[in-house]
């Protein structure tokens, strides 16, 4: 039997769930194709297919889908409504499946995660596996193994960051934002490059142990209900004593970020800057802003 | 002595009347509505708002600032789904940072309104409110809103064809005024029926085959006439019959009841709900096509995420049904002339399509 090939676009939730998705599908015996890093061509395709007001990350996502369209049998597009009870996500994630289905003419596989309507992750992955035609037991085992691996990899990344925090004496900046903004070649990586050229240690907001998430969120914004934004806020509270400054990274015009950034900026005590990036951004503007921000941090260190 | 409490709340179309009625009946405190929305309101609001937050936030913040200047010290925000639910916390923070002193309450803390949550919030606002009063007056207010929406539907269909100018407008004003003086269920219903008859007796000149247009889109911009630059008035002056779905009674109960039915109606396009009113708007687009309307107008504030998710699907529905559709995206900087020009062009297009 030929292997089923499944394409995963390297955008949006890929950065959050890549270990889980890839391990799960590979364990089942599918071939996984991941689209390459975002480049100019992908971005242009994305802009062509999306609404002009959609957020940058969404445009990039559609570009990745277009890249994958003739390279695989199925494309994985999840629909995620709610991960924890009484919490929500940006509505883009609940529209994603239907949107892609209407814009492109392509076989999609999907899973539906909606905890408030009793569809948890195991249930979602099982239905996805069953539609692909795998036996039930194999799916559950694959899911459990993938979940374990994801947990292991996450812990390893967190401990790596911890050791960096303890050992280095350079200026440290917390890059805070959604993972799909932090690690995207077009959005986060160019900021990362500038910081590295200036010999700055970068701490990432998503590599954070969410053991005390609820109590930490309450320090800044007790009523926030966006799961991913809560993670960002909690990590800022967690790291704000050990870093010199915070760079908030937002893609234009992100809905939840527009409000929760305001709360963060108004409540954080250390230097913070908010970089908003859209598809027409010139690199020089970013460079100037980041360099002046670094100057501020250096002066603060000297004064202490 | 303790300062006297003055309650206030932001605007949403004409709905300040039932809300004021309810608060007046329940509490002994003074209730003032915020000053009517003007250009100044939106300027104040956008000055202190985050950059790319959606436009209702700016209107509400402007309302709050103006009403605080007028002496209010207890503010009520509605809350609800989407970004609305989080407005309250950010607005409270912004206003406190500006140096105002006030108490802030939200009616809905989670996604939906439940009797329990309403009870708890009203108890917080005024601990002396008796539960019996609430049980009597809250359904009465909901009934009043329902009657208002019913009349509004009728007005929207006919206002473009009135013989005497402003006859509908004046009668509606009279009706709302009379509603505020009602004493109970009987008197409210009586008033509703008398005014319904009066509305039906108003003289109109309505041709059989007038143009019919449906308005779909985000809830605040469709309910607050100022934020859509009086789009409905403009349509009325062009002699177009207007159908609009979103109103408060829809938000209160219809939405919950019709979700499953609507989803089945559009299962060809949509498998899941999209969040906020996204799925409902796709349903409405399909419904308007099936009912033989001439065109659709989609309105939303700039950056409204659920609508942005729904628009590609609506576009496909309209392509399949060969339906003309125009999209308006409102921001604090939108020019009124631009909207007028686009609307006129749309009107000409509908006329031409009819001519075929």
Order of helices and strands of chain B: EHEHHEHEHHHHEHHEHHEHEH
Oligomeric state of the chains present here: heterodimer
Distance between the termini of chain B: 74 Å
Number of strands of chain B: 8
Stretches with pLDDT under 50, minimum 5 residues of chain B? none
Question: How large a portion of the residues of chain A is in β-strands, by DSSP E?
Answer: 5-15%
Name the helicity range of chain B: 55-70%
Describe the protein.
The complex is a heterodimer of chains A (304) and B (356). Chain A has 304 residues and is of the alpha/beta class. Helices cover 54% and strands 14% of the residues of chain A. Chain A is built from twelve helices and ten strands. A four-stranded parallel sheet of chain A has the order 2-1-3-5. In chain A, helix 1 (14-28) crosses helix 6 and helix 5 (121-132) crosses helix 6. Chain A is globular. The mean pLDDT of chain A is 87. With 356 residues, chain B is of the alpha/beta class. Helix content of chain B is 56%, strand content 11%. Chain B is built from 14 helices and eight strands. A four-stranded parallel sheet of chain B has the order 2-1-3-4, with helices on both faces. In chain B, helix 7 packs antiparallel against helix 8. Chain B is globular, with a radius of gyration of 21 Å. Chain B starts with 5 loop residues before the first strand and ends with a helix. Classes of the chains: A alpha/beta (304), B alpha/beta (356). Chains A and B meet through helix 4 and helix 11 of A and helix 4 and helix 13 of B.
């Amino acid at each position: 039997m030929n292997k089923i090939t499944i394409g995963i676009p390297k955008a949006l939730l890929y950065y959050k769930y890549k270990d889980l998705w890839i391990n799960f599908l590979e364990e089942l015996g599918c071939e996984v194709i991941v689209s390459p890093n975002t480049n100019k061509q992908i971005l242009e395709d994305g802009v062509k297919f999306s609404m002009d007001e959609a957020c940058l990350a969404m445009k990039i996502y559609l570009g990745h889908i277009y890249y994958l369209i003739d390279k695989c049998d199925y494309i994985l597009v999840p629909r995620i409504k709610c991960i924890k009870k009484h919490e929500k996500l940006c509505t883009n994630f609940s529209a994603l499946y239907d949107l892609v289905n209407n814009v492109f003419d392509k076989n999609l596989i999907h899973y539906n995660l909606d905890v408030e309507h009793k569809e948890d992750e195991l249930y979602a992955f099982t239905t996805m596996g069953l539609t692909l035609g795998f036996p039930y037991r194999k799916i559950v085992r694959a899911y459990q193994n993938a979940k374990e691996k994801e947990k292991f990899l996450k812990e390893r990344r967190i401990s790596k960051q911890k050791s960096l925090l303890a050992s280095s004496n350079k200026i440290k900046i917390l890059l805070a934002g959604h993972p799909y903004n932090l690690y995207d070649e077009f959005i986060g990586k160019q900021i990362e490059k500038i910081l590295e050229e200036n010999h700055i240690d970068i701490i990432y907001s998503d590599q954070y142990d969410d053991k005390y998430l609820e109590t930490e969120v309450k320090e800044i914004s007790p009523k926030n209900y966006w799961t991913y934004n809560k993670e960002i806020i909690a990590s800022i509270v967690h790291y704000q004593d050990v870093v010199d400054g915070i760079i908030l990274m937002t893609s234009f015009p992100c809905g939840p970020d527009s409000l929760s950034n305001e709360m963060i900026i108004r409540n954080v005590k250390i230097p913070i800057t908010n970089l908003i990036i859209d598809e027409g951004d010139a690199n020089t503007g970013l460079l100037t802003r980041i360099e002046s921000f670094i100057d501020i941090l250096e002066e603060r260190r000297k004064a202490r | 002595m303790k300062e006297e409490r003055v309650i206030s709340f932001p605007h949403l179309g004409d709905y300040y009347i039932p809300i004021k009625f309810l608060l007046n009946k329940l509490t002994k405190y003074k209730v003032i509505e915020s000053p009517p929305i003007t250009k100044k309101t939106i300027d104040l609001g956008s000055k202190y708002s985050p950059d790319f937050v959606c436009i209702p936030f700016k209107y509400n913040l402007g309302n709050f600032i103006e009403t605080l200047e007028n002496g209010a010290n207890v503010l009520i925000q509605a809350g609800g789904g989407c970004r609305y639910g989080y407005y309250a916390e950010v607005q409270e923070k912004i206003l406190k940072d500006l140096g105002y002193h006030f108490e802030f309450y939200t009616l809905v803390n989670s996604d939906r309104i439940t009797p329990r949550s309403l009870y708890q919030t009203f108890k917080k606002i005024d601990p002396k409110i008796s539960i019996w009063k609430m049980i009597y007056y809250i359904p009465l207010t909901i009934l009043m809103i329902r009657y208002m929406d019913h009349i509004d539907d009728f007005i929207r269909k006919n206002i473009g064809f009135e013989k005497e100018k402003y006859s509908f407008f004046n009668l509606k004003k009279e009706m709302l005024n009379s509603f505020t003086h009602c004493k109970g269920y009987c008197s409210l219903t009586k008033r509703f029926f008398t005014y319904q008859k009066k509305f039906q007796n108003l003289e109109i000149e309505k041709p059989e085959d007038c143009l019919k247009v449906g308005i779909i889109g985000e809830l605040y911009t469709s309910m607050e006439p100022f934020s859509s630059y009086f789009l409905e008035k403009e349509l009325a002056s062009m002699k177009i019959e207007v159908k609009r779905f979103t109103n408060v009674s829809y938000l209160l109960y219809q939405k919950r009841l019709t979700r499953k039915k609507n989803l089945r109606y559009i299962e060809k396009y949509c498998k899941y709900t999209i969040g906020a009113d996204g799925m409902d708007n796709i349903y409405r687009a399909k419904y308007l096509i099936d009912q033989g309307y001439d065109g659709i107008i989609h309105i939303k504030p700039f950056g409204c995420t659920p609508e942005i998710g729904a628009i590609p699907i609506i576009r496909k529905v309209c392509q399949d049904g060969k339906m003309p559709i125009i999209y308006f995206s409102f921001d604090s900087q939108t020019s009124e002339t631009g909207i007028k020009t686009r609307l006129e062009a749309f009107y000409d297009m509908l006329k031409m399509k009819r001519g075929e």
